[in-house]
Specification:
This protein is an alpha+beta fold. It contains three helices and six strands; from the N terminus they run H-H-E-E-H-E-E-E-E. The longest helix has 23 residues.
Length: 147
Amino acid sequence: MALETLLDHYSLRCLGERFADCANRHDYGGFAALWHDDGVWEIGAPINVSFTGAPAIRRGIEAMLKRWDFFVQMPTAFNVQIYGETATGYWTVHEVARSADGSQGNVNLSMYLDDYRKSADGWRFECRRYRTIYADAQQKKKKSFQL
């Protein structure tokens, strides 16, 4: 593998890891900076939303994360194909979240299917498509106390 290809691969891996880190820490400005100005973030079923442009993506992540007391995304397997100034890749991710009142939880395994484009500022997301593989949404019933 040529050194430039190796550096591009490393940069793209870091981009995906920064995505998860910014989401986990609620760093909305950092999250938006990972995208090209015309970037597209598409989240499939069961959420089914799409955001176009860094400002809309920032508003989208902020709105989604506000519902959770905590949210942790852990990226795992990563594969990328680099074609000069563009690349395609995919990630497997594991997510865990819980609502502020503890009544809802979510554990899922998903995949991100990505298109990347290199700019003067480095690699950025051009399009990121989220697909759920497995979801375990939990609703806790309030327990009644009986004597």
